[in-house]
Amino acid sequence: MSILKDIPSTHGIVERFTRYLNGPLGRKVLDNLEEGESFIVQTSDYILRVTKLDGHAFVEELSQME
Predict the structure, then answer these.
(1) How far apart are CA 19 and CA 45, in angstroms?
(2) pLDDT tens digits, residue range 30-39?
(3) Which of 16, 19, 23, 52 is most buried by its number of CB atoms within 10 A?
(4) pTM for the complete prediction?
């Protein structure tokens, strides 16, 4: 049973991107960002902002597509 099933989908996408970017596979992305720098990710359902803070990815939802 996954804990993500109990989290609303909005938080699920933020959680998944945060985990991925702060994990070993996302390290290359963070290594190429300056501290405080951010970028936008657009999926078919969401627009997210990813910011590097204290060496970690901070992901926030900007909007949800309808």
Answers:
(1) 19
(2) 999 999 999 9
(3) 52
(4) 0.79
Spatial separation of the C-alpha atoms in residues 10 and 14, rounded to whole Å: 7
Backbone angles phi, psi at 3, to 5 degrees: -70, -25
Quick check: 38 and 60 in contact, CB under 8 A? no
Partners of 51 in beta bridges = 38, 58
- Domain residues of the chain, as ranges? 3-64
> In the sheet that 38-42 helps form, which strands lie side by side, from edge to edge?
38-42, 46-53, 56-64
